[in-house]
Backbone:
């Protein structure tokens, strides 16, 4: 909004010319969300406590884990509202609000945040760790994914092409199958981040690495010179997504201030589902869906551990991991929570660096 206003004033006051630069606006978006989260954090935590918006730690069937985690009972939750509100505000201020990629990303982000909010609300009302049924949750995710898929498929500026890292010329056009593919990416990434959000600062720390890598990838995708040089698809106007990703980085850093071990607040589904969906839609818009498997590798591995565990238990009545998602497996091995978290962050940072290297290895 500010961008749209100030850019029009650049002819009368030259200094406003600076808002034309995506890098400047991205930096400002990150600083805005960071300071919003930092300044509002304590206030929000106190209000969540006042209104008894607090976590119920799961006990049934998982006594050993409950023993390790029981001190977390009553931690304020739904702090993801802080992330969602600050990212939306900052994006509205610093990005071009008429840019179709920004509109689509905000739509996905907000729609999944609302779903997560309802899920958290149902948990609180029931006084349980169980929220919406899997059927309801999956159906709404599917509808959101389908809406985005149809919008993208009929958008003339978006192709149904899938590009592969490491190969210069390997491109597959999915045709109408692009719609289910979009649903898969959005639902998959939303659930994967949600699964990962089980230790203090784990999901939010990994999101910082992923969103940082995506900020760079969006900038390159929207820049004719860089994308031609690196032989990646040039997507006019997608550079604007750099502002959104940077806003997400700043918000997650601000949230991590309070969510780091030992956490004073949890983000809840309102945060985890929205963040996951946002990462998915950005990957789709800049044609980095396959690369998402690498850059968001921690989320993928966490989701895979759940799938493997469920399949092996259902068919062979045996568990591959002591407990899924993977972070619980390490907890069951007796590794301290803070160590698991920092090691997952390190792994996530390495994956982000590796992702950037793939741009050159072709
Ligand atoms: C959400 N939520 C955390 C918090 C957070 C199919 C199955 C694998 C599903 C999975 C599941 O429900 N995952 C989705 C995971 C929960 O965190 C809340 O939920 C929000 C995110 N949606 O923001 O509000 C708990 O995680 C801990 N936590 C922290 N710090 C944080 O910063 O310590 C969260 C954030 C919190 C807190 O304790 O209460 C969660 O883990 O429930 N289910 C599981 O993950 C369960 N695993 C399981 O059932 N494994 C089985 C099979 C089915 C795969 C197996 O291995 O045999 C575990 N979850 C819990 N206890 N809580 C089991 C043990």
Residues:
């Amino acid at each position: 909004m500010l961008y749209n206003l100030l850019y029009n004033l650049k002819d009368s006051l030259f200094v406003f010319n600076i808002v034309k630069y995506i890098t400047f606006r991205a930096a400002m978006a990150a600083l805005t969300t960071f300071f919003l989260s930092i300044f509002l954090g304590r206030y929000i935590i106190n209000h969540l406590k006042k209104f008894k918006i607090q976590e119920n730690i799961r006990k049934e069937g998982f006594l050993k884990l409950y023993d390790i985690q029981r001190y977390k009972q009553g931690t304020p939750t739904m702090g993801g509202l802080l992330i969602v509100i600050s990212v939306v505000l900052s994006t509205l201020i610093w990005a071009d609000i008429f840019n179709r990629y920004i509109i689509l990303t905000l739509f996905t982000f907000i729609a999944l945040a609302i779903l997560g909010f309802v899920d958290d609300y149902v948990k609180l009302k029931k006084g349980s760790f169980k929220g919406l049924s899997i059927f309801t949750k999956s159906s709404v995710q599917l509808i959101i994914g389908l809406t985005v898929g149809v919008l993208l498929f009929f958008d003339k500026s978006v192709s149904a092409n899938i590009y592969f890292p490491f190969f210069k010329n390997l491109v597959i056009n999915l045709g109408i199958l692009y719609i289910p593919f979009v649903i898969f990416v959005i639902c998959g990434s939303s659930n994967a981040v949600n699964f990962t959000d089980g230790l203090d600062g784990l999901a939010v720390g990994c999101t910082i690495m992923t969103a940082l890598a995506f900020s760079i990838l969006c900038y390159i995708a929207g820049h004719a010179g860089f994308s031609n040089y690196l032989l990646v698809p040039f997507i006019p106007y997608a550079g604007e997504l750099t502002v959104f990703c940077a806003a997400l980085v700043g918000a997650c850093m601000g949230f991590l201030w309070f969510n780091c071990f030992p956490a004073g607040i949890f983000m809840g589904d309102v945060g985890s589902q929205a963040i996951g969906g946002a990462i998915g839609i950005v990957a789709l818009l800049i044609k980095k869906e396959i690369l998402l498997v690498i850059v968001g590798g921690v989320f993928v591995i966490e989701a895979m551990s759940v799938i493997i565990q469920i399949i092996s238990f259902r068919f062979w009545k045996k568990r591959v991991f002591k407990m899924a998602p993977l972070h619980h497996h390490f907890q069951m091995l007796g590794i301290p929570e803070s160590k698991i978290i920092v090691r997952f962050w390190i792994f996530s940072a390495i994956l982000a660096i590796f992702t950037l290297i793939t741009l050159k290895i072709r």
